Amino acid sequence: MRVRNFFLATVSALTTTLLASTSWAQENLGTLETIGKPVDGLMGWQPPVTEVARDIQSYDTFLLWVITIISLFVTALLLICAFRYSAKRNPEPATFTHHTGIEIAWTLIPVVILLCLIPPSLTLLFKQMEIPEADVTIKATGNQWYWSHEYVDHEFGFDSFMLDRADLEEYGYAADEYLLATDTAVVVPVNKTVVVQVTGADVIHSWTIPAFGVKQDAVPGRLAELWFKAEKEGIYFGQCSELCGKDHSFMPITVKVVSQEKYEAWLDGAIKEYAGLPRSVQVADANMNKVLEVEASNN
Ligand SMILES: [Cu+2]
């Protein structure tokens, strides 16, 4: 009897230790460079690691040039008018109220400028919104206040909670990654097309990774999609981007981009470790089915 109790106690202690420590699957990814995170004192964008992110950033630079030139032009006009036509230098103001030529010009020129901005903008929008065939499909469900990630082709999923300051080191994150790092990161292979299906379980959230150039609202009862093909191995951070309640600032997203071999090894471990779906995903699915039933009965 005593031997049996000792055996049971040992097994239970071992299980508790295993469950308490970081997940096995996440530990075996090796050291990864942190690429996508905000850096103190820097301005501008995070390093882009997808084609879409690069396109967004160059379109942003292009727009910045356009608006800078327009702003300088308007400022120069204001200064010239203020100087040349002040009451002191121009005591007898002109009395005309219309000038057809100028009116046509200030209508047509802005129209032409706006028309020139449309093609690159729409091209980029279509690149983002036309979802290519996926190598990996992940469903991200926003909950108050954490994300659930489900690997739909392998029927497992896990909840990703933000790490407390005290736990950062144990999980391999730096102290300044507080508010960004989660206990279980989304793991994806490098140079592969990843499609993320995004939905919400309770209120609207938004899934984003700035370095990938992706952001998608997570609306309860709807399944939206985004895609990315990350070109560099590393750790990338994002945060919920739709105000969703009191802990909105505490539901970050962590994505680890790894080699295909490491991804497959992780997948083998993850399938065992996270077998089945977390309850939060089941609740979101049930909610979505309810919405679909209501929509079907209304039609
Ligand atoms: Cu939120």
Report on the architecture of this protein:
The protein is α/β, with parallel strands linked by helices. The protein folds into two domains: 51-129, Orthogonal Bundle (Helix Hairpins), CATH 1.10.287; 136-289, Sandwich (Immunoglobulin-like), CATH 2.60.40.420. The protein is built from six helices and eleven strands. Strands 4-3-2-6-9 form a five-stranded mixed β-sheet, with helices on one face. A four-stranded mixed β-sheet has the order 1-10-11-5, covered by helices on one side. A hairpin with a 2-residue loop joins β2 (136-143) and β3 (146-151). α3 packs antiparallel against α4 (100-129). The model is unreliable at 11-21 (pLDDT under 50). Residues 205, 240, 242, 244, 248, 251 line the site of copper (II) ion.
Biggest β-sheet: strands ordered side by side in the sheet? 4-3-2-6-9
Q: CATH H level of the largest domain: which superfamily?
A: Cupredoxins -  blue copper proteins
CATH fold type of the largest domain: Immunoglobulin-like
- Can you summarize the main beta sheet? 5 strands, mixed
Low-confidence runs of at least 5 consecutive residues? 11-21
Encode the helix/strand succession as letters: HHEHHEEEEEEEEEEHH
Helix content: 40-55%
Topology, number of strands: 11
Q: What is the CATH architecture descriptor of the largest domain?
A: Sandwich
SS class: alpha/beta
The portion of residues forming beta strands comes to 15-25%
Number of helices: 6
Euclidean distance between termini CA atoms: 66 Å
What is the domain tally?
2
Radius of gyration: 27 Å
